[in-house]
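Fig. S4 source data, part A: sequence.
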Amino acid sequence: MIGYLRGVIIKKQPPLLLLDVQGVGYEIEAPMTTFYALPEVKNEVEIYTHLIIRDDAHLLFGFATENERHMFRTLIKVNGVGAKMGLTILSGMEANEFASCVKNNDIDRLVKLPGVGKKTAERLIVEMKDRLEGFGDSSVTTQSSNTKTINTDPVNEAVSALIGLGYKPQEASKFVLAVANDDMTSEELIREALKNSVKK
């Protein structure tokens, strides 16, 4: 099991990250909460990882904190929740925020995440409440929101990232265009679009 990597960021294109670890390039899928915390391309970073081995692929998922990885591992144990939905949930809200929704039976917030219907939200609450005892009682881990990425077309990249996270193309465009301003990076656009998509 690969549990941790330290290397240089070669490419950032949400939800994919390419990390050079002593000459070996690891392709890692990560939630947007992790992307917000990443430094610029060509900088070194430490990532906590989770490896999933399937018949047709080895999939590596990366997280900025152990807290986030623990939440992902807890999520994918829930019946009907796969790795893709786990990433989508952690992209729409931070791990501690999700834990709070589960503890408070906040189905309304959960169903606003793409791919999470009422039945899935109810299942998440029922199956995860006991598993999240004590989770998120401490303050939310502070993550950098000053990451800047040079992109040729931030709006298109932001829309593509949301589609990759499970949003329909029309929804992705609507959410991104609703928050788009000049000089915003794709990561800033994604952050604001996701924030707005799960607002009450």
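Fig. S4 source data, part B ends here. The longest strand covers residues 4-13.
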